[in-house]
Structures are given as structure tokens and as C-alpha cells.
Amino acid sequence: MSHAATLPRVHEPHEAAGFFRTYLYATDHKTIAKQYLLLGLLMAVVGGFLSYAMRWQLAWPDTEVPGFGFVGPETYNALVTNHGTVMVFFVAMPILLGSFGNFLIPLMIGARDMAFPRLNALSFWLLALGSAVLCASFVVPGGAASAGWTGYPPLSAKAEYTGVHWGLTLWLLAHAIEFAAFLLGGVNFLTTIVTMRAPGLTVGRLPLLIWQLATASILFLLSVGPLIAGAVMLLMDRLVGTGFFLPERGGEPLLWQHLFWFFGHPEVYVVLLPALGASLEVYPVFARKPIFGYRLIVWATIVAGALSFIVWAHHMFVSGMDPRLAMPFSITTILISVPFALAVFTMIASLYRGSIALELPMLWALAFLAMFITGGLTGIFLGSAPSDIYLNGTYFVVAHFHYTLISAVIFGGFAGIYYWFPKMFGRMLGTRLGQLHFWSTLAFFNLTFFPLHWIGIAGMVRRIANPLQYDLVAPHQWINVFSTVSLLGLIAGQAVFFLNFFLSQFRGRPAPANPWQATTLEWTAPSPPPHGNWGAALPAVERGPYEYSVPGAAQDWLPQRAGAAVLGSRS
Amino acid sequence: MSATTHAHATGAAERGKVAIWWFLASEIMLFGGLISSFVISRLGGGAQVDHGHLNVTVAAVNTFILLSSSYTMVEAFGCAERGDRRAMRLFLGLTVLGGLAFLGLKAYEYTGEILHGFTPWAGTFWSFYYTMTGLHALHVLIGVIANATLCVAARLGLERPYRVEVAGLYWHFVDIVWIFLFPLVYLS
Predict the structure, then answer these.
(1) What percent of chain A shows pLDDT beyond 90?
(2) Do A250 and B46 touch (CB under 8 A)?
(3) Which of B3, B33, B130 has the CB atom closest to A226's CB atom?
(4) Cα separation, A211 vs B14, whole angstroms
(5) Does the residue B139 lie in any domain?
(6) Domain holding B150: CATH number?
(7) How far is A263 from chain B (nearest CA, A)?
């Protein structure tokens, strides 16, 4: 049984490859992972800049935004729309799914590359094209898309309604390209996980992150189809003149909302699960304890994934759909908190009485847990139709989904970036700037978003450009100012990260192969791993992924890789 | 050497098949979303079928052609596995012809309907009709290109018969979608 046979066919010597082959037309999964990471970070700067202009307008309405200019209502709508689009589709997915998935799936399952390396490169470049199309939509005549990130018709179905013609059409096109990129990527991920695991790596021994990435890929593959259908219909409405979503032509605007949220709810788990998985990899390493309830977490993930397909109408309680649907969808929504509560409890139990080392990846992972619980709790209010009818469309919702999504993308994402940076780049990420980054992010994130709960309950609704025009919101304007000032701190904190990220590339301490004394396979490859990841022999696996503090073992961790352990008397 | 090549081909065949099944799963959801939208729209009274103006005869002939092309695709895979190059090219060629005939007849249907004023914007039913059959026709076209590529470069199909199998799985899927569309649009 020759495993070298699974080598990708293009296997030219790495050092002989020129700049073009190494960095642009790269098929190596690690290079593609770095491309995804850099693209995601670049788009995060774009999305962050949009949020800065948006929050400035909310705090000091209709004043000149430094570095941006005058905002006003039309531009504000475009800012809101594209901030959401950029952050969800062009930051969260590229970093959490694209970068972590590409870097870690082959390394964690003991493969040399993805199943289809050239398809993988195609996925990335499609995403890059999609990002370029989206950025181009900001500068076309008529301005950028401004119908909200959910693009509800009839507002989005006719250029006359928003005054935006090409901006919104390009916005739809950018989505289509992004979906194609992640569809191909998802097929690649799943095929790799199913067919290319190392000998001995049974599904019960897979690191939990692989389970989460696989579930996320399946959710994306199975949920995005209806939205692609909807996007085709919306594009036809705009360009061909059909009337799918236009009531005056016999169309049904609510149909779009159903198609959008049928995708939209699984999509939030597409973003959440990889972050959850990254944190689950970090806890046992820095608590020196096995994961509590491995099987329970796997089943909770699968059950939550399945349930996520039947909760979508909780986004539509006040949309005018048949009110009899509210109760079943409230019930499924409350049900889905059960598997997630189980997952959270197992995470806490995994930490309980561990030898916790507060290294940077662990700080981020712990903050993920705390912030995600906060966001999850407010979700219960929004999932129940009676309280949602009051809170729907207010800043309470904005606070809720920033606590869930930012806990995943920022806290879970940085847990992963700080944890795998040494493997990815061969150097340690600086700790002093890292500490500054973590604590400032934790503080300013809460200062920015927690007060939004209050102003939401007080009645401030989303997507208004000037809160001072509303008598019931104007007395609470100090909250908007406070939140915006805190956002400036949050953004400054991220600048520290960028500084650290680039400084550490050159000045960071060279990383050993296994700086955290972790058990999973990626830590048995050199840092950074060469083309092909391991030398002549691919690793084989002889035990589960979280063998920490095994009684009787000579050291407090037993690697998954066969023959790599320093064995004690009992093993 | 031959053992290594064989192991490689087996691994690639397995990967190809796993990949196409996941891809088809997402395609089921794409057509599923579109067809469900049509069904819901019809149940709600928004997209009543315009029976008198559809050419059922041409569509029935088209159904027959597409189903027959699935049969020739199966035969082509059998030949590829046996290593029979001539017969494989013949059957792949027939499959391509079937796909092209389907597209030609579909174009004829569209022309007739548009000339009678039933354009995509003539009403909700017609919007759905053109979107659903158009998306399906696009899939037929992609299948035709894939099969033609395998037919012209017969080496691809003979040295790696799984490629004919993967193309075949896709082609049967395109067929199955039509089996749903034909009764839903033309017969019910």
C-alpha cells in the first residue's frame, strides 16, 4: 500500500519554482491558505473602514467623516449593506473556512495536499475575482448596492427603487462568484476528508476541528442552492424584466426572504463551526486535559447542523408571513439551543480542573466562550416570536449578531491564528503586542457593542442614517457616541495586530515543530511544513487526538502519530 | 511502477466519485429551491400553467431523446471499462448528439413561444418556465461539452474510465431534473 501514490501529480521541486508558480499560480494547500488569510485580512480592512464611516455618521450625524467625506442617507444605506456583505462573505468565510480549512485539513489528516489542488487554486482565484467585483461596485456610477445585506425585494428588484443600477447588479454577481468559489472549495474539503485520511485515522479519531469544518462545508453545499436560485431570479427581475418578486406583476417578495434565510441561518453556522472547532483544539492543549465528551460534541454539531435547516423563518416573524408559522419556528429555534448548550457545557467541562496556561491562543479561545454565551443568550429572546416582535429590527438584534459573529470571527478566529501562526509561518507571534491586541479587543468590543442592547430596547431601529431625527432615540444619543468612540479603540487594537503580524514574519522567534506540545498530526511536520508536508513517509495514526495527562505516560501528552511518543510503563 | 499507477488511478477514481456526489447534492438543492418556489407559487395561484401555449409534443420527443442519451452514456462507460476505444467514442458521440438534439428542439420551442408573445416577462408562469428550463438547458450544455471532451480525447476516458463514470453521473442527474420538470411544467 503505497501512500506516496496519493501525491498530487504536479510535484516539481519547491525551490525551483519561480515567483509566479510559488505565489500566484500556487496549488500547495498551505500557500492557498495564506492567500485566503491575506485576502480575508485585506477585506477586513475594507469592512472595518465602512463600519467606521457608518458609526461616525450615527454618532455625529451629517458631519464630515475624517478620511471618508460626507455620508448622508443614500451613502449610509450603501455602507450598511456592504459592511455586512464584506464581513460575512469576504472576511469570515475566507479566514475561517478558506484559510483554516485549507491549511489544516491536509495537515491534520496526514495528507500531502487537498484532493484537487488545481480546483483549490481555482476556488481561491474565483473568490479574489468576487472580491474585486464587489470593490468595483463601490465606484460605478449610481453608487454601491444599498438594499441591505439581505437584499430584500421589492427594494432590490428594480433599479428605480434605490437609484442604484450597476452597483446592486455587481453586488449580486460578486455573491454568485463567491458562492461558486466556496461550493468548489466545499466539495474539495469533503472529498479530502472522506478519501485521504492517514492509516489509523478513523472518524472517531479526527480532531474536532475537522468535524466542524466538514459539517460547515455540508451546511454550505446544501443551503446555498436555493439562494443561488433566488439570486438568479432577482437578477432576472433586474435585467430581463421578469416579476418573480414584484407584487404588481403577480410576484411574491416574501419568497426571496424564504430563499435567503433558508441559506442565511445555516450560513451563520458555516461561520461559527470552524471558530468553535479552533477553540476546541486550543482548550485541551492549554488545559492539558482531554476534551470532555468528544462524541457528544460531534453529535451536537450534527444535530445543530440538521436543525439549522428548519429554523429560518425566525428571521421573518414580522415579515407578513402566515403567523401560524411563528410557533413551529420558535420551537425549532429554542430546540437548536440544546445542542449548542451541550457543546458549551462540554467546553466548560473540558477546562474544569485543568492546568490552565493563559497563553495568547487560550485567552482568545476563553474570550470566544464568554462572548458566545452572551450572544447566545440574547438569541433566545429573538428566537421567541413574542419578544422578537418587539425587538425585531432594533439595535438589540445588531448587538446580538455582533456578539455571536464577532465572538466567532474575531475571538475564535484569532484563537486559531495565534495558535497556528508558528506552523503557518515558522515564527512565533510576538506576545507583548499580542497581549495588547487581546486586552484592547476584549475591552473595546464590549464597550462598543454591549450598549447597543440598551439603545435597541429603547427603540432605535437598524438602517437609520440619523438617530437625532427621532424623538424617542435622541435622548439616548450618548450611547451612539460612546459606541463610536469605543469602535475607534477597537480599530486601533486591530492595527496593533497587523503590526505584530508583519513584524513577527521577520523578527519573530523561530518556531519549533511543536511549540505548544500538542498531540495532533500537524505538529509532527516541520514549521513551516515543506511542500508535501512530511518527508518520504506519511504519518500513521495510533490514538485519539486529545491524549493529555494520560496516567502512567512518561510525558503529559501522547501524540496521535504512530511511533512518535515517549512511552511510559502503561502504554 | 504499474502497481503505483494503479493505486493512483484507484485513489483518483474514488476522489472523483466522492466529489461528484457532493457536487450533485448541492445541485439538487439548487433545482430543489427553484422547483419548490414554482410549486409554492402555483399553489398560491401566482403561476398558473399556460397549457394551450406549450408544445407538449416537442417536449415529449425531447424527453425521449434525453432518456435515450442516458442509455448511450451507460454503454459508453461499459466500453471504457473494457478498454474498447472505438465503441466508447461511438456511444459518447451518440450521447453528445442526443444532448445537442435536445438543445436544438428546446431552442425551437423557445422561438415559437417568444414569437407568440410569451416572453420571460409575460407573466409569473413564463418567468419560471424560462428560468427553470433555461437553467436546465445550461446544465445540458455543460454535459455536452464534458462528454465531447471525453469523446475527442478518448485517451482521457480509456486510461481513466472513472472520468466517463463521473461524467455519466452528472449526465444522469441532468436527466433526472428533466424528469421532474417535464410533468411539472407540461403535464400537470
Answers:
(1) 88
(2) yes
(3) B33
(4) 21
(5) yes
(6) 1.20.120.80
(7) 10
ipTM: 0.92
pLDDT at A17: 64
Q: Does A242 touch chain B (CB under 8 A)?
A: yes
Asked whether the bond before A528 is cis by omega within 30 degrees of 0, the reply is: yes
B-chain residue closest to A114, CA distance: B15
pLDDT for B2 = 42
Asked if B159 reaches chain A (Cβ–Cβ under 8 Å), the answer is no
Would the CB atoms of A195 and B46 count as touching at under 8 Å? no
Q: Is A223 on the interface with B (CB under 8 A)?
A: yes
pLDDT given for residue A1 in this prediction: 36
> CB–CB of B27 and A225 under 8 A?
yes
The average confidence (pLDDT) of chain A is 93
Across the interface, whether the CB atoms of A251 and B46 are under 8 A apart is answered yes
| CB–CB contact A227 B33 (8 Å) | yes
Lowest mean pLDDT among A156-160, A528-532, A562-566, B32-36: A562-566
Task: Count chain A–chain B contacts defined by CB atoms under 8 A.
Answer: 121
Contact B26 A250 (CB under 8 A): no
Q: Looking at the domain assignment, is residue B178 inside a domain? A: yes
Domain count along chain B: 1
Mark which residues 55-114 of B lie under 8 Å from A by CB.
none
Taking residue A471's Cβ as centre, other Cβ atoms within 10 Å add up to 7
Which whole number is the average pLDDT over A163-182? Answer: 95
The residue range of the domain holding B95 is 55-187
From chain A, pick out residues whose CB is under 8 angstroms from the CB of B121: 240-243, 249
Distance from CA of B162 to the nearest CA of A (A): 15
pLDDT at B154: 82
- HSE-CB at A121 with a 13 A cutoff on CA atoms is 14
pLDDT in tens, A298-334: 999 999 999 999 999 999 999 989 889 999 999 999 9
Give the tens place of pLDDT for each residue, A362-414.
999 999 999 999 999 999 999 999 999 999 999 999 999 999 999 999 999 99
E strand or H helix at A499? helix A477-507
- Candidates A256, A242, A78, A76; CA nearest to A167 is A78
Predicted TM-score (pTM) of this structure: 0.93
Amino acid B9: pLDDT: 59
Q: Do B29 and A251 touch (CB under 8 A)?
A: no
Q: Tell whether A222 lies on the interface with B, counting CB pairs under 8 A.
A: yes
- Give residue A197's pLDDT: 95
Report which secondary-structure segment, H or E, holds A43. helix A29-59
The reply to whether B15 falls in a domain is: no
CB of B145 within 8 Å of a chain A CB? The answer is no
Does residue B90 lie in a domain region?
yes
**CB < 8 Å & 24+ apart, contacts of A119-123:** A119/A184, A119/A187, A119/A188, A120/A27, A120/A29, A120/A32, A120/A185, A120/A188, A121/A25, A121/A26, A121/A27, A121/A32, A122/A184, A123/A98, A123/A181, A123/A182, A123/A184, A123/A185, A123/A188
